[in-house]
Amino acid sequence: MLSRQIAPRLREFETPFYLYDIALLRQTLESVVSESKKYDYKVHYAIKANYDDHLLAVIREYGLGIDCASGNELRKAVEAGFDPRGIVYAGVGKRDKELRYAIEQGIMAINCESIEELELVDLLAAEAGRVTDVALRINPDIDPKTNHCIDTGQADSKFGISYEEVLAHAEWIKSLSHISIVGIHLHIGSQIRELHVFENMCHKVNAIVANLEAQGFSFRFVDVGGGLGINYDVPENEPIPNFASLFSIVHTHLQVGGREVHFEFGRSIVGECGELITSVLFNKTTATGRKLVIVDASMTELIRPALYGSYHNIENVTSEAETREKYTVVGTACESTDVFDENVTLRTTRRGDLLSIKSAGAYGMSMASRYNLHDLPGAVYSDEL
Ligand code: LLP
């Protein structure tokens, strides 16, 4: 873990800040690229996980495409130098101006998530005098066995079009003359650690693709989304996620039939390379005897614990104490849920110590807010130290 290796240098920077291990990011990218090449799979980076410019510049070097979820994410990817023809754009609610921009950029595919959206994209493409490539985002109705806050592919979810609805509108969809249906897309959820879930996903995709192609659709690619989980419990045991296992499952179970296979990884690319470094402001004990460590970060820098009850491993990286104690680590925001961990064993912790909140590279900075008028956190990159 980078923070432990460079602990004395961490004091040069104002806390709280994100510390990024760029060597680990590169190793992760090398792994995903070399494993995906074995099957000729195409990998997109889900930019929502972290849109930091420095990280994007590194990711771009490895030839990944981009998966984006808003017009601004699309713009960011284009400005960061990603080829629009390698960008896909999903999202249940796209504004007209966002769709116009996507059409104008000629991206790889707009992943449409409703019948009304298909109609609108057709109309806007006609206005622009273009035929736009579209993928149908299908809701596959799969339980990804993850935190229910971050599952996306169950029948009642807001994401994707139901397969039945596509079938019911098949002739009409094919008749739209300013969109070309080039692919099929699904994403079943995030932080998936039980990889057999992806096996179920493949079987569903096989059936959906076969049935829709029987209706006269023809898909150049199948985009199976992201979702590969990381090891929040003991990140040191698994700094690079197991891309090889996921690809091998997909290779075994997906009937490819000459189509391209695409993935959209967010967390598994950038999750482990980032830590949130925060200073201990105060220690105190509640009337009930609970020992609190109050740090200068809060849910405004990393909202995952407060929002989903997510676990992040925490370590005191500057304490030399031989003794260890149990603490509740809390942030500065005026919210009772602003708790990083209820029951963490740390080296005896004093004011001024630096804590690392690990595995915070994904959905940390990108979900930061300015609640309580907090400043947004800074970033420190290992390759600039
Ligand atoms: N593709 C689509 C269409 C998505 O909606 C997402 C994530 C991804 C790809 C990337 O998924 P990943 O590989 O990162 O699992 N803020 C939550 C996670 C929300 C995920 C949203 N969609 C968290 O902090 O856990």
Describe what this molecule looks like in 3D.
The chain is α/β, with parallel strands linked by helices and 385 residues long. The protein folds into 2 domains: 22-271, TIM Barrel; 272-380, Beta Barrel (Lyase, Ornithine Decarboxylase, Chain A, domain 1), CATH 2.40.37.10. The protein is 29% helix and 23% strand. Strands 1, 11, 12, 13, 14, 15, 16 and 17 form an 8-stranded mixed β-sheet that branches. The chain has an 8-stranded parallel barrel with strand order 2-3-4-5-6-8-9-10, surrounded by 4 helices. Helix 5 crosses helix 6 (115-127) and helix 9 packs parallel to helix 10. The longest helix has 19 residues, at 196-214. The chain is elongated, with a radius of gyration of 22 Å. The mean pLDDT is 96.
How many strands? 17
Bound molecules: ligand LLP
CATH class division of the largest domain: Alpha Beta
Supply the helix-strand structural class: alpha/beta
Spatial gap, N to C terminus: 15 Å
Main sheet, how many strands, which sense, barrel?
8 strands, mixed
Mean pLDDT: 96
CATH superfamily of the largest domain: Alanine racemase
Low-confidence stretches: none
User: What general outline do the C-alpha atoms trace?
Assistant: elongated
Helix and strand sequence: HEHEHEHEHEHEEHHEHEHEHEEHEEEEE
Q: What share of residues are in beta strands? A: 15-25%
| Domain count | 2
Query: Mind telling me the C-alpha Rg?
Result: 22 Å
Which percent bin holds the helix content? 25-40%
Write the CATH fold name of the largest domain: TIM Barrel
Query: From the coordinates shown, what is the CATH architecture of the largest domain?
Result: Alpha-Beta Barrel
Number of helices: 12
